[in-house]
Every structure is written in structure tokens, then in C-alpha cells.
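Look over what follows to help learners.
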Amino acid sequence: MEDPRHGLALLGPFQKLRNSVNYGVIGTPDGIRRLKDWVQSIQNPISEETQGRPPFPGFEAAFGIEWPAEPNAVIEIDEPALMRVVNIDDVNKRVHETVGHFLFRIVKHQKNEDVPPDIWFVVIPDIVKKRCRPESKVPFAERVVTKSMISRKQAITVGSGDWLPFEELKQEAEPYLHKPDFHHQLKGRMLKHGILTQILLESTIAHHEFLRVDGKPKVNYSTMLSQIAWNICSAIYYKVAGRPWQLDGVRPGVCYLGLVFKKDDKGATEADACCAAQMFLNSGDGVVFKGHNGPWYSPESGQFHLSGEAAQALLTSAIESYKDTHDGDPPTQVFIHGRVRFDDKEWAGFERAAGEETQVVGVQIGDAKNLRLYRPNSGQPVMRGLAWIQSDTSAILMTNGYLPSLGTYPGKEVPLPLEVNIVRGEEDIVQVLKDILGLTKLNYNSCRFGDGDPVTLKFADDVGEVLLSVPKQHEVPPMPFKHYI
């Protein structure tokens, strides 16, 4: 089927590893009630009169497993206690304490139960999202004033050394070693525990309960209920029960690596950055590998590049992971996707890691910012999948656009094409374009026809932020992609 929603509705999921969703929920009493009500609502079909958005047939009808409205575990958060940490004056402490308010209770429950939930729903009031972001502020009258023994700069210095004898100072430093973003920090701090989470805003699942003074919803999702159901349900199925769909025409022995870079504002120099790689198979399986932090950013060029040694270590980790799930056989081809061209030292490191058994191909993918394509005398944009092949190594690819199967273009703006260049190695440009187009349909976190970016690059910023939420002296083992979304 061309649209995964049609495939799920008619044929069910590609892979099934569970017969039901075993889940826990943590939130305020109202948040827990709202999740239960929402889970009950998705047992039935949901449809809006919106072109290009297939109706949701109900969870069990689409995915073939049960999702009981009653959770397997419930942890109730005291709302006044939550508000005290949400209103802490210092943003780093505020986010660290708010994340801990949820995290410690989940971890404790997981350790004490013989059969713990497979996934935890972290249902948060909207004020948590509003006030637990890097630039968020708390109104003066609501602030909970705190005192700190050290400054942020001192905290970063303290936290990066194992030599400091004063445990109290280390605890003071801890909040400043994480990014002050609730979503990214919770995901990052959960990595060492291996616990899967799904963060939901109360207003997303119960928009009708959050009203303005005139009685109308503050945010009206009434025309998006099926889309919300598709997106959340496919993400949950992927995290606990298996792959909901797989690409047709999978080529054996091929994997795709998307490079992830993020500047480290806690680094010693402006050049310090975090590097990671997202590896995906055509089957949809994904793993994230954290490389070494280092001086990968050039302020002069505005680009990121690894050293030869770091590039070799990163690809070696990916190939070893591939071999673990393929009877010890390495991949025959690895396509490395990046936003910039690879330099000579970087590429030499990748080639050393690949050896003679694996062919590596470097592909630069970016937005064609100076180009737009239009259909004359038509109210619809050009068709998704259209390619303008400019040479044996360069092309323009429309990954968004008009969809004949839906009879419309589901976007709102003129679609932005991708510029694709084979910059290292050799491969047929048409095959590279087909692979990229296919990889736009492997986003299990959102059940839709396809995305503008391939999955190798789509989540690069979010994965980088999650990894930066973990202090760099903490080791992060290769983890399934589902832990980051």
C-alpha cells in the first residue's frame, strides 16, 4: 500500500511481538483521567471530513492488539508539589527538579515490580512545557526562590572533574550539566535506565477541556483527532509491539547512517560539539550511536567535521551493531547521509572502518533553498517523487508535493525540494533518490504518507539535544532509536 494508514487499516501491522499494550501512566489526577478517557476513545473509529487524512479505524482494528483503557500501573503526582518545582526561579534547577519529579518515581516502580510496564506515559500539564524550556521565565509573583553555592560556569567546571572531594558541590553542579528542556532531558536521563517513555500534553488528548473565557477551546484539535490518533498509536505500537510497516523492495545488506552534530555550549571552546550517528535499515530498525565529543565545529565555515579517528570509531560501532543482528556478516553497502560534504580525513576514517567487505557512499542532502517548482494553471504543487536529475551525481528531489492517491497536497506552503549530491563513493543517482524517498516513509513516530526529510536526518536535532542532555562524562551505549522519540 502507498499510504501506511491504508495498509494498517486493511492489512494490519507488518510485525507483531505483543498481544496488548502493557503500560504505566504518571501524571496529575486529571492527567491520568484524561489519558484513560483518550485511550477509551481510540477504541472506536475516528473520522473528520478532511481530504487527505484517512479515518482512524480504532486501535485494535488497525494494529491487531489490545490497548486496555485501564493502565497496568499508575503513579499519581501531587499537583501542588509539582507546581513548586515548576516555579523554581533558576531554569536549570527548575527543569532538573521537574524531570526528577517524574523520573525517580518511574525508576523506583520499575525496580520494585516483577512485571513492570513496557512503556510509561508521562502526561504533563501544559505549564510544564511552557516553563521547562531553555528560554522560559516564571512570573515574579509565582517564583520559588532558590540559592546556589556556585555559579553556572563554576558548576560546569566542577561537574567535568572526578577529582572534587565535596559531594555537596557535585550535587549543586548536576542541574547545570543537562540541557534545560523537559522533553530532551527526560529522554536523556532515562537512557541509562533503558525505560521507554511517551510524553503527552494534557491539552493534546483533551483539548476540549481547556477553554477560553468565551467557552471555546484554547487550541482546537477537533479537525485533527484522527491524525493525533494515528500518530500516537503508531509510535506506541513501534515502541512496544514491533514494526508497524516495512518498505517494499528492501535491498538486503544495505544500511543508512545519518550524522548528527550539535554544538556543546558547555564545552571549553566554541568548536566543541557532540557527534552521533543514526543507523537505519530498510526494514525500519534504528539504532543511535554516540561518538566522541570534540572540536568538530568550525566557526569560520559553520560546518561540522570529524577527525579521521573519530569517524572510524563511529562507523566501526555501527558496523559491529549491524553484524550482531546479521549472523556476523557486515553490510555490503553503507550510505552515509550528511548536511555538508565530507572532508578527506573524515572520509578516510570511514573507509578504514568499512574495510574491503563494505562499500561506503557519502551523500549530501540539503534543502534546495533557492529553488521552487510550480505547475502552471494548477492549484496543486508538483507531484511528490518528481526528480530533476542534473548529472550522474546530482539531482533535485521533491519529497513533498501533490499525492495522486490522496487527491491533494496535505501541506500548507509551496513544498521545498531537496538537493541531493553523491560526494564520495559511487552509486547510481536514481537508486540513491529512490532510497531517500523510501526513507521519508520510515517515521514510525508520525503515521503519515511521508516526510520531507529522510529518517536518517529528520530527527538529527532532537537526537543531538537528547545526547547533550546527558553529561559528556556519562557513557551512552548504542540504544534503539525508539528511546529518543
